[in-house]
């Protein structure tokens, strides 16, 4: 999608294992901590990374826009 729509930033974010009903409260991080990655990705500036996979707030090392 990032290759097709060059004028928008397209990324994927894994928020981490968050304490929620979905995880039966067994997660390792709070909802607030889990929100950091998606919020960071939503606020990337023009020209920021696109076509990558974020693990929380870091680009996953196996993810590359060249794939």
Automatic annotation (TrEMBL):
Q: Which SUPFAM superfamilies match?
A: NAD(P)-binding Rossmann-fold domains (SSF51735)
Q: Which InterPro entries match?
A: NAD(P)-bd_dom_sf
Keyword Metal-binding found: no
Alphabetical UniProt keywords? NADP, Oxidoreductase
A GO MF label: oxidoreductase activity
Q: Name one GO cellular component term.
A: membrane
Please report which protein family the annotation says this sequence is part of. Answer: Belongs to the short-chain dehydrogenases/reductases (SDR) family.
Protein name stated in the entry: Glucose/ribitol dehydrogenase
């Amino acid at each position: 999608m990032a290759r097709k729509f060059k004028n928008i930033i397209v990324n994927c974010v894994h928020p981490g294992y968050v304490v929620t009903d979905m995880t039966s409260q067994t997660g390792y991080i709070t909802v607030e901590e889990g929100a950091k990655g998606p919020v960071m990705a939503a606020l990337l500036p023009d020209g920021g990374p696109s076509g990558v996979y974020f693990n929380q707030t870091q680009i996953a090392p196996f993810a590359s826009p060249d794939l």
